[in-house]
Design goal:
six-stranded antiparallel sheet, mainly beta, seven-stranded mixed sheet
Length: 190
Amino acid sequence: MRNLKTYLVIPMLSLTPMLAAAAEVDAGDFVSKRSEYVSLRPATTVELPALSDSDRISQLLADVTQTFYIGNWTGTVVYAGGSLTGSSVPYPLPAGLNPSAPYYYSGAGQALVPALTPWTQVFGYTTNPSDPTGAAKTCIWQIDVSVVNGACTANVTTNAYGTQGVSCILDGNSGVDPASCQLFVGVGLQ
């Protein structure tokens, strides 16, 4: 019996590194390089595409995540305006974001909201919190989730303010799960 245990343990030890690697969380989800960005015109509303089947979750969940990735490509620190709302907010929007290389996210926030429920999130970032519409680069995003005939859709509307010229960016990989209203949105300012 003792020899049998030895023969079983050795193959299991060789599997341990592979299992550990498979279970690691990919930090690239929160700070990663993206290449499909679209600069939005101020006061323009864009409908988000539906998530692919592989990105969708079970419709049986009571709450779903609304995940927001933010990129700061202004070259200076930006400060949050607004906050996420929901049943709970496990990851609030960062109060300040250091600049990062173009198309790398600087931070993220996440809210839990009831599944299949219309919801609106409004938040923004500015380089000058004491004068966001003056000597600043300011972007404000409004994300509206709607439920029509049991299917979820989402729209993003952006507004740009400040005299320093800003581009408000939307990640082309953003989307909504039509079955649950789970949401992934990547935005940035430049």
